[in-house]
Amino acid sequence: MWTLRRPPKKKNSPDTKSWHTCIPTYAACCPTAGPIIHLGATARDIGDNADLIVLRDAFDILLPKLAGCMKTLGEFADKHKKLATLGFTHFQPAQLTTVGKRACLWLQDLVLCEKNLSRVRAELKFRGIKGATGTQVSFLQLFNGDYEKVRELDNRVTKLAGFSSSYSVTGQTYPRIIDAEIVASLSILGAAVHKMCTDLRLLAGMNEIGELFEPTQIGSSAMPYKQNPRISERVCSITR
Questions:
Q1: Would you call 220 a catalytic residue per the annotation?
Q2: Which residue, 67, 87, 158, 176, has fewest beta-carbon neighbours within 10 Å?
């Protein structure tokens, strides 16, 4: 027969010590809330909800930047839609295409990424005030069994944090599959951008498409005339 045993936690273990030093700090900043800042709550009522706010705000930074990139790329594609160029398959010369068509391939990938990221952003919810294991039992005790007040507390905190709804079922944490979904959506964007910038680096090597060469730019100490695709190289590095 299997039995589950939890080893005793050390009194000043790093995870508890780091969190509980935060409580006096918050209390010092807001003395009125000090006595009740952790009343009935667990660390995840504060920490996980804060993480979800950060994730939401990060999406709100990323998505407009992605939209700007798509707009610029769309304008480039329209401008060069009739400019003929040689197409490649397996990086070997193939049939003719246009520069605009080639740019549309990159743009289409970004459109698909934007739709996926927007969906993940729209479906992101708040953990809410759920207590130590997600049952809200500690808050039910604080409100003397009045579950409507518990629900109202959950709804008010959720709205104050700028979310329209919270996850109806949680454990101590919000569903960790949400983290996996966010990472996956960012990885898909990374793959699309890496593909585009790799294409640009290859085309730059054949002098078909190049990046803007700044007046102060130096290719290398030995070959200052080199027009290295520095931006594409950096983007590829970041996406990896």
A1: yes
A2: 176
